[in-house]
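As a warm-up, study this chain.
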Amino acid sequence: MSSQLLFRLISLFGLLGIVAAIVWAIRSQLIQFAGTKQTLRQQSLDMATNLRQWRALSTPARLDALMRFFYLATLAGVLILAITGFVPVIFGYHAANFALMIHMILAPLFAIGITALALFHAERHRFNQNDWQRLRQWFRREKSAAPRENPELWQKLCFWLSVLLSVPILVSILLIMYPIFDTRAQETFLHWHGYAGLLLLAIVVLHAYLILSNKRIEH
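Now compare it with the structure written out below.
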């Protein structure tokens, strides 16, 4: 089996698995589609209102508006990049024409967005002593450290994994753009780019689920 065919199969089953997980979560009432739509709409409205009233906002309010903007923009960017990057591959083609143009336009915006998220949210996602203790308990498979009982810890893990995975995604595509390596090495970098992107998409979906489910519990 060629590496290209293997990547197509992994992409196909990976995306199908993500879609199946989302459908299962909605059908199991773990997340509610109507509530999710309302939450995203309210977040977008609040962000738009804050941006229109930018000069009248205090410094903390401006920072909060920027954090919401970069979060929503990066989330939307990841989804569009996944569609333009993986859908052509699944059907046996490389991203080209309009899909490639959209992919390349959003790539630098994704780099800016993920960097801004890392700067804005690094402090609140810092691991404390309790987090490390819970992780050790979970690795020992103690029931007291079940993931559903520690949503904030798993949100932190998803956040840092997203930041770490963005590094090979960006570096691999930068290496491809310069004629330093031969064709075989560029194909390897392209596969690294794809595998890291697929993992990032899965983690972003999981992170969004944790946030939505946590808000549902709070309400």
